[in-house]
Design a protein that fits this description.
Blueprint lengths: L1 H11 L3 H19 L4 H7 L5 H12 L3 H6 L5 H5 L6
Length: 87
């Protein structure tokens, strides 16, 4: 795993775990705005067994809880353009 993570970072410039998390949050955003699935089902689809963990991570990455994000107009740039990269 360390070797593959290092290769991934060399090729992409980003860490594997950060990239995986970014993809999950992108998928969550899409599901929140394009479906009526309950938040616990979205969390489950993304591999989170603990909905509270999903909510905490989503809020940290986007600045909004999933419910608040879902209720924002789709054109809101703040919710969609916030950087999801972490050190």
């Amino acid at each position: 795993p360390k070797y593959l993570s290092r290769l991934f970072k060399e090729k992409t410039g980003a860490g594997f775990n950060d990239t995986r998390l970014e993809i999950k949050i992108r998928m969550a955003r899409k599901l929140l705005t394009s479906s009526v699935l309950p938040i616990h089902e979205i969390a489950d689809k993304l591999g989170y067994k603990n909905m509270e963990s999903f909510i905490r991570i989503f809020k940290k990455m986007t600045g909004h809880t999933p419910a608040a994000y879902r209720s924002t107009p789709q054109g809101t740039s703040r919710a969609r353009s916030r950087s999801v990269h972490h050190s």
